[in-house]
Amino acid sequence: MGKTYQPIFRNKFLPYLLILPQLALAIAFFLWPAAVALYQSVTRTDPFGLKTSFVGLAHFKSLFLDSRYLKSLQLSFIYAIIITVTSIGLGLLFAIAANDKKVPAGRFFRTILIWPYALAPSIAAVLWLFLFQPSIGLITKWLKMLGVNWNYTINSSQALALVSLVAVWQRLPYNFIFLLAALQGVPVEVIEAARLDGASARRIFWAVVFPLISPVTFFLCVVNMGYAFFDTFGIVDALTKGGPAGATEFLCYKVYRDGFVNLRLSISAAQSVILIILGIILTIAQFRFGEKRVHYE
Amino acid sequence: MVKSRILHFWILAFGGLLVFFPVYVALMGSTQDSINIGRGQMNLIPGNKAASNYLQAWYFGSTVVGTPPVYVMMCNSLLVALGIALGKIIMALLTSYAVTFFRFPLQNFFFWLIFVTLMLPLEGRIIPTYKVMADFRLLNTYAGLIIPHWVSATGTLLFRQVLRSFPKELLDAARVDGASPIRCLTAIVLPNIKPNVVALFIILFLAGWNQYLWPLLMVTSPSKYTLTIGIVKMAASGEALVDWGVVMAATCIAMVVPLLVVIGLQRWLLMGLGAMSSR
Questions:
Q1: What are the chain A neighbours of B217 within 8 Å (beta carbons)?
Q2: Which residues pair with A45 in a beta bridge?
């Protein structure tokens, strides 16, 4: 065996040719636009587009003095935490049940629980919209019978609850798949040994199993945060359009509204840069926890 | 032990119900008269409008708003998802092949540039990307829906890892026999890593099928709507006027492809997900 890094081919130009298409697309549609966003976030262009001057962090300063942006920032974090905790919690509950190999119809339930992973967030939103629509929704009707006046289009906390419900429902399968795989990776002998020592099922779970699956859980926390921050756009757009009164205007929706609807370009650019920073943090975290996971197993 | 098994069953049954219930109601909704649904008289048993709702959705779309027929959106979604997944696979394969089996100046830098795209969500470069698309005259085109997605940091990382553990003796032997690097890629590498390619393809296909923000930005003419944005537009138009029976028929049709993938290709799907997380 030669060294791992020994090249096989000695062509001079071919590798550039091979790498060029993806590199060109990455520059044109990712790196260049990101650089432009960064540039726009620290400059101001006059209304005629003739003069551009450097303004430093002025846009960021006005962003962080804007109570609507602060509210959106706070909402996004609350939303991300709700989704992450709930979907991991439920995913773990179902994974524990499905890890029982002799449970009746286990395979069937497993397939059903995986299924929403393949659905688009926006299609999931339409499914739940049909149930919770204020005038025709079936669950709306049931809630009315129970004396609950359900109208998420005017009630802020109901809007947040509905958007969270759809996200958790759509995200549950992903967590279920990973947690089930992690549980299946826990050595049977370890659990047997603990049982022989007289530990209760609950104690075995928290003292033996949970520490072993915690790397996967950390990994899922990071990935779910990323999902909540960036991939829930379709849910919000289909259900609430950020309303009522900004109650579901998360960062990824606000940057779109301010850029495309309200046409506040430099403010939108500053928001873009903050989202990129968030993207960087999440990617780094994902790789750290990803590595740990491999290391532990 | 038996007691906990019963508990496990009921937990799973609850989970199954949670997942299945909205799908079931959509299915029932798709068989009923929109007028009845609009009056709040939704039934949990099948109605008698299934044929007309599905035919209406498939051939004409929603009567109320200017959305295209479902078959058009379905073709768009298929074309876009296949185009994206195929393009990403090819790009990722070429790049990882270059950085694994060749040695050239700045290769780590170029690899890093592609890796960095992982940290740049669309929301973080939304306006300038739109500007680039307009400058290239790619708005409202299939090329615009597909080509900008042909960057896959995840795929490149995954294939690089796969290729690093690829038996080099195979390539050496072929090279000595006079095979060109491209021939080595297509005739030796590709057939041997087929499972990885298939697994990644499925993940990328679903991601392409399900994306929302990009087609929303790129497409203004209804004839190029994908299912994800078309159905939301059908469902969101002016409250009471929504043709719910038809919208639910369209939604049910839109769920068929993901359902087939999960049922038919579950093993590949799980393999792909596993590979993506432990790169």
A1: 260
A2: A52
Tell me if A33 is assigned to some domain: no
The pLDDT, as a whole number, for residue B237 is: 61
Work out the number of other CB atoms within 10 angstroms of the CB of residue B153: 22
| Residue A55 included in any domain | no
Query: Treating both helix axes as pointing N-terminal to C-terminal, what angle do A67-98 and A210-226 enclose, rounded to 10 degrees?
Result: 140
What are the backbone angles phi and psi of residue A44, rounded to the nearest 5°? -130, 135
- Indicate the pLDDT class of residue B176, thresholds 50, 70 and 90: confident
**Mean pLDDT on B234-248:** 78
In a domain, A10, yes or no: no
Number of domains making up chain B = 1
Domain extent at residue A166: 67-296
Q: DSSP letters along B120-141, please?
A: --GGGGHHHHHHHHHHTT-TTS
Neighbours of A102 (CB within 10 A): 9
Chain B nearest C-alpha distance from A236 (Å): 11
- Segments in chain A below pLDDT 50: 1-4, 291-297
CA distance B273 to B73: 27
| B20/A287 Cα distance (integer angstroms) | 34
Helix runs in chain A, H state only:
14-26, 32-41, 58-65, 67-98, 106-114, 121-132, 138-145, 156-184, 188-196, 201-204, 210-226, 233-239, 251-256, 265-296
Is B96 a residue whose pLDDT tops 90?
yes
pLDDT of B240 strictly over 60: no
SS3 at position A13: coil
Looking up residue A269, the CATH number of its domain turns out to be 1.10.3720.10
User: Is B35 an 8 Å CB contact of chain A?
Assistant: no
Domain of B101, CATH number, reads 1.10.3720.10
Residue A274: which of B264, B90, B84, B121 has the closest Cα?
B121
ipTM comes to: 0.91
For the entire predicted model, the pTM comes to 0.91
Residue A54: strand pairing partners:
A43
pLDDT digit string (tens) for B144-166?
999 999 999 989 999 998 998 88
Among A147, A268, A257, A28, CA closest to B143: A28
Better pLDDT: A53 or B279: A53
Count the domains in chain A.
1
The two three-digit tokens of residue A118, written as one number: 């393949």
User: Per residue in B184-215, pLDDT tens?
Assistant: 899 889 999 998 999 999 999 999 999 999 99
**Residue A111: inside a domain, yes or no?**
yes
Q: For chain B, what is the mean pLDDT? A: 88
pLDDT on residue A293? 45
DSSP letters spanning B242-274: --HHHHHHHHHHHHHHHHHHHHHSHHHHHHHHH
List, as ranges, residues 256-295 from A with C-beta within 8 Å of B.
256, 259-260, 265, 268-269, 272-273, 275-276, 278-280, 283, 290, 293-294
Interface of B with A in 134-173 (CB under 8 A): 136, 147-148, 150-152, 156, 164, 168, 171-172
Quote the domain boundaries for residue B174: 2-277
